[in-house]
Amino acid sequence: MQVEPFVSPGSIVRRIWGDADLVLLVFAGAAAEFALNRAVDWLFVTRALPRDPLGRLFTTASYAQDIAFADVGSAQSAFARIRAAHEAVERKGGGKIPAWAHRDVLYLLVDYSERAFRSVHRPLTPPEQEELWDVFRRIGVGLGIPELPEDYPAWRVDRGIHLERDLVYSERSAELFDAYRRHLGPWRYALLQQIQLALLPERVRQLLDLPLLDWVGPVLPLYPAVAELGLGSLIQRALVPPQHLAAVQRLNQPVTAREAPAWP
Fold first, then answer.
1. Is residue 257 part of a domain?
2. Residue 196 belongs to what domain range?
3. Which residue blocks in 200-263 are alpha helix, DSSP H?
4. Is residue 3 part of a domain?
5. Which of 38, 102, 188, 238 is least buried, going by the fewest C-beta atoms within 10 A?
6. Is the backbone peptide bond immediately before 264 cis, with ω within 30 degrees of 0?
7. Please, what sign has the CA dihedral across residues 205, 100, 13, 25?
8. Which ranges in the chain belong to alpha helices (H)?
9. Does 1 score more than 80 pLDDT?
10. What is the DSSP secondary structure assignment for residue 264, as one 8-state letter?
11. Largest Cα span, the chain
12. For 47-70, what is each residue's pLDDT tens digit?
C-alpha cells in the first residue's frame, strides 16, 4: 500500500534537511538563539542540553530530519511522542512551557533553514519560502502549538516580534555558551562563532560578543565546489568533534522516524 509522505519528495525542505552540511549550519545558528531565549530555564529542567550540548543538538537534528522524510502516519506518531516528552518535562519542572517559547523554537528552525540555504546556494524563491513555512506550520500544528501564522509573510512579521521580545542574555545563556566552548574546544568554538556571525539575525548578533571580522560568510558560497572535490568530509572533521562525526554524517541519508526526544 502506498503511503503519503509528510513532505513532498521534491520539496526544498527535503533538500535542506537531507544535507548534513546545511543542517550543521542550521544548528550553528540555533545553538546561539536557544541560549538567548527568555524561557531557556526549561532547557535546564533535565540538564540534558548543558550536560551534552552537541549530542543533544545533533539528536534533535536527526529527529527533525526524520519528520521531513517520514510518511504522514509516522510523522503524527513522532508528534505524539514529542508532546508526551514535553508534558514529562513540564511535570518535572512544575509548570507549563509557554506557547510562545514553542513558537520561538519552531520559528528559528524555519529562519535558519532559509539562511543556511541562502548562505551556501542562493535565496529561496517566494514559492519555496511558502513551502518551507507550510511544512513547519504543519509540524507546529502536529505539536499542538497555537496561534501560528497562516502564510510566510505573516510568519516573517511574527518572527520579528519574537526576536525583539523573547531574547535576552542571561546567566543561563552564559552557562550554555560555556558548555559549547568546553565541548568544542577553543578553536572549534572560534569557528562556530564565525559561522554564527555569518548566519544570525541582527538582533541576535547584538546580544552576543561575536568577532568583528566575518571571514566565513564570504566563503560559504564556495562550499559546494569544495565538496565536489571530495573535501566535504575533511571540513566536517574540522568542525565536529570526533565522537559526534558519525551522527553528523548520518544526516546525509534519508532516515525513518524513531522514538523522538523533547523538542528541542
1. no
2. 12-250
3. 202-206, 223-228, 232-239, 242-250
4. no
5. 238
6. yes
7. positive
8. 12-17, 20-36, 48-51, 53-68, 72-93, 99-120, 126-142, 152-166, 171-184, 186-199, 202-206, 223-228, 232-239, 242-250
9. no
10. -
11. 56
12. 666 778 887 777 777 778 889 899
Tell me which residue has cell 552564559.
174
Answer yes or no: is 7 within a domain: no
Evaluate if residue 12 carries a pLDDT over 60.
Answer: yes
Residues 105 and 140 sit within 8 Å (Cβ to Cβ): no
Interior CA angle at 119 toward 115 and 121, to 5°?
110
User: What is the spatial distance between Cα 189 and Cα 179, in angstroms, rounded to a whole number?
Assistant: 10
Query: Which residues contact residue 196 at a Cβ distance below 8 angstroms, ignoring those fewer than 6 apart?
Result: 28, 29, 31, 32, 205, 208, 210
Distance of CA 172 to the CA centre of its chain: 19
> What pTM value is reported for the model?
0.88
Distance CA 235, CA 20 (A): 12
What is the identity of the amino acid at 260?
Answer: A
Q: At what angle do helices 186-199 and 232-239 cross, to 10 degrees?
A: 110
Taking the C-alpha atoms of residue 28 and residue 7, their distance in angstroms, rounded to an integer, is 24
State the Cα–Cα distance between residues 264 and 250, nearest whole angstrom: 19
